[in-house]
Amino acid sequence: MNRHASRTLWGLALLLLGLTGLASTQGAMQLPLKSLWQAGDEALRQIWLTVRLPRVLLALLVGAALALSGCVMQGLFRNPLGDPGLLGISGGASLTVACWLVLPITVSPLVALYAPMLAAFIGSLAVMMVIYLLSKAGAGETGLSRLLLVGIAINALCGAGVGLLSWISNDAQLRQLSQWGMGSLGQIEWSTLSVAASLILPASLVVWRVASALNLLQLGDEEAHYLGVNVPRLQRLLLVCSALLVATAVAVSGIISFVGLVVPHLMRIWLGPDHRALVPGALLAGAMLLLVADTVARTVVAPAEMPVGLLTSMLGAPWFLWLIFRQSKAVP
User: Fold this and answer.
1) Can you tell me the distance from the alpha carbon of 13 to that of 34, in angstroms, rounded to the nearest whole number?
2) Which end of the chain is more exposed for a tag (fewer CB within 10 A), N or C?
């Protein structure tokens, strides 16, 4: 890792730390950190500890997970348009989570705590396997077009499935599905946060450890094999980690689009293609982007709250259009 990348990463880490402290004080109710530790402010401390702090930490976790998943997919498919939402992976996770929310499935309390993540993991991994097999079958612009078309078809099918489940759901389930489909970090508790952290943090650590091997994979499967990389094993490992990151993020926050597309691409422009810097850079920048977006979403229309998924879509869609035009101009 070069000196520029190292300095950038330290700068991002310090900026993220400052923004985290600031975001924990902002919202419909201002909670200055100084007043939280003064005598007689026990009610404010409880609000900060049980409502504001878990939400801020969840924004960090989900943003990091989505950005890191996009970084892995772009590196694995060797394509800057790789994104869990565009390719239907988030759609697959959303369908299986909707099944869990609506269908009468009875499990033990311990299993129920992990059940949304498990359901989302099954859906996202199934879609990712389809995408991966198709990416191996096609190459170049034709392969990219095929992936995008398959992603559109998968999103349409999963959207139809979620719509059907919404139709047969009761009022409480319908409201839960609606909020979850637009992306929100509001329904969070420490127990859910701990479950999400127990899945996202190990998966992120594994991706970080294989960043050097992911660099070799950019040379092509055959070249990476000759350089000592067990290519099939590495690809399976990255698929599982990426699916786990997407699944956990979708299960706890709903559909939050474009974080996995915008952040890794920006970090690649800024830090270069070295995944030893790109992986932690995407992780830090993704956490920062969603933290800022969620802070804006819960303050700009206070005391109401805008779904953070709508905000990231408004920011990410123009970027995606620019990226599409940039890619088309680059093709002779």
Assistant:
1) 23
2) C
Q: Mapping DSSP to helix (H, G, I), strand (E, B) and coil, where does residue 120 land?
A: helix
Per the CB < 8 A criterion, the answer to whether 125 and 243 are in contact is: yes
Tokens 């990255």 -> residue: 238
Give dist(CA 278, CA 74) in Å, integer: 11
Helix (H) or strand (E) holding 81: none
Classify residue 114 by burial, with Cβ atoms within 10 Å: 0-12, 13-18, 19+: middle
Are 115 and 248 in contact by the 8 Å Cβ rule? The answer is no
Query: Do 321 and 48 form a contact (C-beta atoms < 8 A)?
Result: no
Q: Who contacts 277 (Cβ-Cβ below 8 Å, separation ≥6)?
A: 1, 2, 5, 6, 8, 9, 271
Q: What is the pTM of this model?
A: 0.84
Cβ-Cβ contacts under 8 Å for 178 (sequence gap 6 or more): 166
How many of the other CB atoms lie within 10 Å of CB of 19?
Answer: 17
Q: What are the pLDDT digits (tens) for 174-216?
A: 887 877 777 788 777 888 888 889 989 999 999 999 999 988 8
Mind listing the pLDDT tens digit for each residue in 128-159? 788 777 766 654 444 556 777 777 888 888 88
